[in-house]
Design brief:
Number of strands: 13
Number of domains: 2
Shape: globular
Keywords: Oxidoreductase
CATH architecture of the largest domain: 3-Layer(aba) Sandwich
Protein name: 3-oxoacyl-ACP reductase
GO molecular function, one term: 3-oxoacyl-[acyl-carrier-protein] reductase (NADPH) activity
CATH class of the largest domain: Alpha Beta
InterPro entries: KR_dom, NAD(P)-bd_dom_sf, Sc_DH/Rdtase_CS, SDR_fam
Family: Belongs to the short-chain dehydrogenases/reductases (SDR) family.
Strand order of the largest sheet: 9-8-7-10-11-12-13
Structural class: alpha/beta
Length: about 450
């Protein structure tokens, strides 16, 4: 859906009004196009004394064909910054970050990226180290709100033993693929998996099979298209009323269609049978199908409460359990849930929806350590305000508030959620498990 306000602020009149009245100024975000380099520009790399990820960062950037430097030339514009903060052991050590970042932030180009690397605070062996490492989140979240111009900031915690598994995550967070992701925290190797295989940067999913539910339109279709772009064979699933759309879209992707209600008692068995017969299993399982039935709790019908919970979290859990029981998710495979900012922050009139989406987060946290021994990961995305057809039904004032109440002052696009799913699905993300990443432009609502 068109954002007319964003179009206005990029006219001469709009620029004058924004500057004069202090109005939100949503920038044009750069997004990735197939065939583009991951990063069009140079990344400045720095480190605190005693930090340990220097070699891993250099190797990852080289593998991704991302240009980097450790010294900023006078007048040079850079596309991003990676700072290795694993050596910080006390509150006083935090000065190292300020001393490094303050002189270079004015040299960031538009839609630039800042990534702070640390070690998991929960693994710290001293109080000072726990303080310094946890502080990275406060720095990156605040910086994400300061940068402007379409730029973003994130923190990444790398567990011991997972140092060589950072390439996929760096590639995602430094590139336009993460256009609408900011102020997030990613944990690598903290859910029992610490290794990740090498991958083809352009087509990491060649030879992989991906199941996407709710694939006929909206977010699910964007996910299917993006996974296909990355080389996967896509099996799309949706309900009978959307069968024509599903079959048309999957045919365009050289994919396959399953017409099925995921809440049917035998749905898990039927899905498992199809994947076993046609593909011998599956590598990527994306539980995107979901619904809303909004009412305040005092007016909520039991059937609407039950249906939302059943579709959004109960059916994905049951389907996944069946696939795991039949050992149909291959080693190196991944399970992906779709949560929501509503599951984190809550939302007026959406107690049923918020319950289901918070439930997705609980499911991810519980399952991640259990499937690690089989080399399987599970993660979730939590979209914020995304410009889908559903937006058209939202009253104008609420729609505009949803768009502007984030650090990027605009709604996201379905591709932004799909790119996050594709990063999780990348075999190079094999040490990323148990994460919930918000795709919300760093919304002002929630954590």
């Amino acid at each position: 859906m068109s954002d007319r306000y964003q179009d206005l602020v990029h006219t001469s009149v709009g620029k004058f009004l924004v500057k004069t009245l202090g109005l939100p100024n949503p920038p044009r975000l750069e997004r990735y196009n197939a065939g583009d380099p991951l990063v069009s520009g140079t990344i400045l790399v720095g480190a605190a004394p005693g930090s340990t990820l220097g070699t891993a960062v250099a190797d990852a950037l080289a593998a991704l064909s991302i240009a980097s430097t450790d010294a900023l030339a006078e007048g040079e514009k850079i596309k991003g910054v990676v700072f290795d903060a694993t050596g910080l052991d006390s509150a006083g050590d935090l000065d190292r970050i300020q001393e490094f970042l303050t002189p270079v932030l004015r040299s960031l180009g538009r839609c630039a990226r800042v990534v702070l690397l640390g070690t998991p605070p929960e693994h710290a062996d001293t109080a000072g180290r726990a303080i310094a490492q946890r502080a990275l989140e406060g720095i990156s979240r605040s910086l994400g709100k300061e940068l402007g111009n379409g730029s973003t900031a994130q923190s990444v915690y790398v567990a011991g033993g997972a140092e060589d598994a950072i390439a996929s995550t760096l590639g995602f967070l430094l590139s336009p693929k993460s256009a609408y992701v900011s102020g997030q925290v990613v944990r690598i190797g903290t859910a029992g998996i610490t290794d990740a295989p090498a991958f083809d940067v352009a087509a990491p999913l060649v030879g992989k099979v991906a199941l996407v539910t709710g694939a006929s339109r909206g977010l699910g279709l964007a996910m299917a298209q993006t996974l296909k772009r990355d080389g996967a064979t896509v099996v799309g699933l949706d309900v009978a009323p959307l069968a024509d759309d599903l079959e048309r879209e999957m045919a365009a992707l050289d994919g396959e269609a399953i017409v099925l209600d995921i809440t049917a008692p035998d749905a898990p068995q039927r899905i498992a049978a199809y994947l076993s017969e046609h593909h011998g299993g599956v590598d990527v399982v994306v539980h995107n199908a979901g619904i809303t039935r909004d009412k305040r709790l005092r007016n909520m019908a039991t059937e609407n409460w039950h249906k939302v919970v059943e579709i959004n979290v109960d059916a994905p859990q049951r389907i996944t359990a069946e696939l795991l029981d039949q050992k149909l998710i291959h080693s190196g495979g991944t399970i992906l849930g779709v949560s929501s900012i509503a599951g984190i922050a809550g939302n007026n009139g959406q107690t049923n929806y918020a319950a289901s989406k918070a439930g997705v987060i609980g499911w991810v946290a519980e399952l991640a350590p259990r499937v690690a021994a089989d080399g399987i990961t599970i993660n979730a995305v939590a979209p914020g305000f995304i410009e889908t057809d559903m937006v058209k039904t939202i009253p104008l004032t609420i729609r505009e508030a949803g768009r502007r109440m984030n650090s990027l002052s605009q709604g996201g696009q379905p591709i932004d959620v799909a790119e996050t799913i594709a990063w999780y699905a990348n075999p190079g993300s094999g040490a990323v498990s148990g994460n919930v990443v918000r795709v919300c432009g760093q919304s002002l609502l929630g954590a």
